[in-house]
Design a protein that fits this description.
This protein has one domain (12-189). Helices cover 32% and strands 16% of the residues. The chain contains 7 helices and 4 strands, in the order βαββαααβααα. It has helices at 24-31, 67-70, 73-79, 95-106, 139-157, 174-177, 183-189; strands at residues 12-15, 38-47, 50-58, 120-126. The protein has a 4-stranded antiparallel beta sheet, sandwiched between helices. The radius of gyration is 17 Å and the shape is globular.
């Protein structure tokens, strides 16, 4: 669908240690031109030179008049549960990330230092500024495909394993598995002018 989506090359990276509060992510996402669609990777900084992607996710864009006001919300509500912020959220939205991280720490799959926001970065792929190479039905098709592509990149370099917090395999979603119809191919069949 896109020829330029690569796990090792997000459009921008946010160091959570540099934010005063989790909701600052909303401003950064908008500042980087995202109005609706993005994918992200939570990255644990093991040490100065070693990083590990621990979760790949997508924004779940919806066609609502208020979508642009909520852009970054899914990401913001998840990172708000990490240790190191001045306070925790007042609702349980996004708590599943914290619950899953705690479970992986207890199972020995993540070190406890991964729970601290100062050790987490977020890589973000802006899908609003890219034009798909393929025919696209809905906005959600784009984010699902990119999430699958990022997970595929990870699996290629990690013996077919997923990031520790991706319990469902994004490479198995229908949009990613069914393949895409290239716009150049559609243009040869139909004349849209």
């Amino acid at each position: 669908m896109f020829s330029d989506i690569k796990l090792c090359n997000p459009d921008f990276i946010v160091e959570l240690k540099d934010l005063k509060k989790a909701s600052d992510i909303y401003k950064l996402v908008r500042k980087n031109g995202i109005k609706k669609k993005y994918c992200y990777a939570l990255i644990y900084r093991k040490d100065l030179l070693t990083n590990e992607v621990i979760k790949i996710g997508e924004s779940c864009p919806e066609s609502k008049p208020t979508t642009d006001k909520a852009v970054g919300e899914r990401l913001g509500r998840q990172i708000a549960w990490l240790n190191g912020w001045a306070s925790y959220p007042k609702s349980n939205h996004g708590f599943d990330l914290k619950f899953n991280m705690d479970s992986e720490v207890k199972a020995g799959n993540l070190p406890s230092s991964a729970l601290d926001r100062c050790n987490i970065s977020v890589g973000v792929w802006n899908l609003d500024t890219r034009s798909p190479d393929a025919y696209v039905g809905q906005d959600r098709d784009i984010t699902l495909w990119v999430e699958g592509k990022l997970a595929e990149d990870y699996k290629i370099t990690h013996s077919n394993l997923l990031p520790v917090l991706n319990y469902k395999d994004p490479t198995q979603n229908k949009i990613f598995r069914q393949g895409v119809v290239l716009k150049s191919h559609v243009d040869t069949i139909y004349n849209f002018s």
